[in-house]
Amino acid sequence: MKLYQLHSKQALPISKKEAWDFLSNPANLKVITPEHMGFHILSGIDRPMFPGQIIQYKVSPFPGYTTKWVTEITHVNEGNYFVDEQRFGPYALWHHKHFIKEIDGGVEMEDIIDYKIPFGILGQLAHPLIVKKQLIEIFKHRERKLIELFGNLKNVPNELTLKSF
């Protein structure tokens, strides 16, 4: 089974505290997720982020298909990074690291997602046709939405790469 990795970097002209306050609040996932995905948080956001926190969502990754997605916040380093891992959902593996660091004029947000697709060879065949395209669109949407909310840090290119191992 192949392991895939999505790597994203985006620079924003905001303070590290502003970035942390927005990104570490799971309720803001709905704000930066494309509307067509029918993303709804079911439970787990009644307290500030902490290791061991379980968050349940409902999402429609494809038309006509809705699934529950359960993630656990496994690591939190206040103001610097947090990690969420899928416990139940559409992936065979989902490990998502979120980093925030100060740079000249603002912050750089970095996401590293290691994931596996279920269904063996069928999943691997579906990856370039469906999953890869959808993940890229989700992160491009997020990039546009964050620029709309916070502005764009000029002279720092945003990056988005997806590779397999």
Structure description:
- The chain is α+β, with helices and mostly antiparallel strands.
- The protein has one domain: Alpha-D-Glucose-1,6-Bisphosphate, Chain A, domain 4 (2-Layer Sandwich), CATH 3.30.530.
- The chain has three helices and eight strands; from the N terminus they run E-H-H-E-E-E-E-E-E-H-E.
- It has helices spanning 16-23, 29-32, 120-150; strands spanning 4-12, 40-43, 54-62, 65-77, 81-88, 93-103, 106-116, 159-164.
- The chain has an eight-stranded antiparallel sheet.
- A hairpin with a 3-residue loop joins strand 4 and strand 5 (81-88).
- The radius of gyration is 16 Å and the shape is globular.
- The protein starts with a strand and ends with a strand.
- The relative contact order is 0.27.
- The model has no long low-confidence stretch (mean pLDDT 94).
- InterPro entries: START-like_dom_sf.
- This is Ligand-binding SRPBCC domain-containing protein.
Return the structural class.
alpha+beta
Overall domain count: 1
CATH superfamily: START domain
Q: Strand arrangement, largest sheet? A: 2-3-4-5-6-7-1-8
Residue runs with pLDDT of under 50 for 5 or more positions? none
Shape field: globular
Please give the radius of gyration in angstroms.
Answer: 16 Å
Largest β sheet strand count, sense and barrel closure: 8 strands, antiparallel
| Number of H/I helices | 3
Mean pLDDT: 94
